[in-house]
Amino acid sequence: MRQINKQRKFLKKNDKILGDVNKIMYLCN
């Protein structure tokens, strides 16, 4: 159970980073 929570937190953080990267790419274009 804790493992799943850890993974979910990690995925959430990754989503945020990906979102930021997408924003930057969009602004650069």
Mean pLDDT: 89
- Nearest-angstrom radius of gyration? 13 Å
Total domains:
1
How helical, in percent, are the residues?
over 70%
Structural class: mainly alpha
Give the low-confidence spans: none
Compressed to H and E, one letter per element, the order equals H
Number of helices: 1
Distance between the termini: 42 Å
Q: What's the total number of strands?
A: 0
Describe the structure in brief.
By secondary structure, this protein is mainly α.
Describe this structure in words.
- By secondary structure, the protein is an all-alpha fold.
- 93% of the residues lie in helices and 0% in strands.
- It has one helix spanning 2-28.
- The chain is rod-shaped.
- The termini are far apart.
Helices and strands, with pairings:
Blueprint: H1 2-28
Features:
mainly alpha; rod-shaped
